[in-house]
Amino acid sequence: MVAIPILGAPYVRIQNSSVYQDQGPHQSATTTALLVLATFFVCLRFWARYLKSFGYALDDLMLIAALFMTFVTGGLNYAMIANGLGKHMQLVPQDTLTEFFKLLLGFECVYVTAVMLVKLSVLQMYLRIFPSRNFKYSSWAIGAVVVAWWIAIVLVCIFQCTPIPKAWNPSLPGHCIDLKASFVGNAIPNIVTDVAILALPVGQVWHLQVNLTQKLSLLFMFLLGSFVLFASIYRFTTIMHWQVEDTTWTLAEACTWCVVESACGVISACLPTLRPVMTKISSQWGSLNSSRKNGGTRTTGMGKSGLRSGLGFGTESRAAGGGDGSATHKTGSSAKNGGSAIRSGPRSHGFSKMDSEDGHSLDELPLQKNARPPAGIQVQSDFSVQNEPAYSGERRYR
């Protein structure tokens, strides 16, 4: 054990073997991985909107701003690592420590801004999906709490010391607030609002006029973002390890988990919108497997015959009630060439409005409680149409 003075503190005893440890490379790698993942999922979100030819909404713009602020947060984390974050404080020169504390002040403000934008983006997406008046009031109330939390934290970060420069120059006369208490005060409202946002759509989905399986699938989709809550909770636990006498070492994991939390928030906001992408990938994978099984003689999905699949829509056979009894058949694809087989699965006709007749997906449609099925007889069918040339000039249907 050696006794090492730190910034005028009495003495801090640290094991000789641990003095020269550096968490920097590990923190940099984690930051890079999460920034790449967040960018990847945002690209998937906009690909999904391109597939359905949807325009961009306010929640998309908010998410782009959140991703930008997440990158700024990551950039500041890289800069802090270059200025001593992840090393024991007694190994960092005084001039470098001054730069580190300046970066830390900006890091706190940028991090809470990124988290605030993610939360508002999710709330805005909810407002597009659920048109209920009470739901809108609840969303607006949570959004107001989030904005108030953001303003309070930014003000606390800026004015944590009097005078303000004492935050990065401890030798100046003056005083600072209890930073550990301020970090705890930051984390608790953050976690509470995460829980409120995750729970917000549960009641709306549970009262939809759909079967239990559809309810559970919708709830699962909305609750996919719950892992950002676990990131927030874990970041809170890392803050409790912080010691002011060795800030650069004990705060390293917490700073990196700030980047992890904001990046996970961006990813969570994208997950409910990715159904068109997943449907396209699964349909193409199924088409590939089908082509292999049939030796390439029959084409399904998107193939050389110009077949084009939609958002996983199957074939619908509907007879309009009260009309002349004529039947209308719709398929999710059309064939241009003879000799090709069209296969389409059953479509769950949109009682929950997961799909609409014009091809919109869940994230683009309002979901209302007590939704009623459309008028008329709804017939779900699963059949294939095989068009083969015949000597008699007739078409055979199976």
UniProtKB/TrEMBL annotation:
<keyword id="KW-0472">Membrane</keyword>
<dbReference type="InterPro" id="IPR049326">
    <property type="entry name" value="Rhodopsin_dom_fungi"/>
</dbReference>
<comment type="similarity">
    <text>Belongs to the SAT4 family.</text>
</comment>
<feature type="transmembrane region" description="Helical">
    <location>
        <begin position="60"/>
        <end position="80"/>
    </location>
</feature>
<feature type="domain" description="Rhodopsin">
    <location>
        <begin position="44"/>
        <end position="279"/>
    </location>
</feature>
<keyword id="KW-0812">Transmembrane</keyword>
<feature type="compositionally biased region" description="Polar residues">
    <location>
        <begin position="378"/>
        <end position="389"/>
    </location>
</feature>
<keyword id="KW-1133">Transmembrane helix</keyword>
<feature type="compositionally biased region" description="Basic and acidic residues">
    <location>
        <begin position="352"/>
        <end position="363"/>
    </location>
</feature>
<protein>
    <recommendedName>
        <fullName>Rhodopsin domain-containing protein</fullName>
    </recommendedName>
</protein>
<feature type="transmembrane region" description="Helical">
    <location>
        <begin position="100"/>
        <end position="118"/>
    </location>
</feature>
<feature type="compositionally biased region" description="Polar residues">
    <location>
        <begin position="328"/>
        <end position="337"/>
    </location>
</feature>
<feature type="transmembrane region" description="Helical">
    <location>
        <begin position="216"/>
        <end position="234"/>
    </location>
</feature>
<dbReference type="InterPro" id="IPR052337">
    <property type="entry name" value="SAT4-like"/>
</dbReference>
<dbReference type="Pfam" id="PF20684">
    <property type="entry name" value="Fung_rhodopsin"/>
</dbReference>
<feature type="transmembrane region" description="Helical">
    <location>
        <begin position="139"/>
        <end position="165"/>
    </location>
</feature>
<feature type="region of interest" description="Disordered">
    <location>
        <begin position="286"/>
        <end position="398"/>
    </location>
</feature>
<feature type="transmembrane region" description="Helical">
    <location>
        <begin position="29"/>
        <end position="48"/>
    </location>
</feature>
<feature type="compositionally biased region" description="Polar residues">
    <location>
        <begin position="286"/>
        <end position="302"/>
    </location>
</feature>
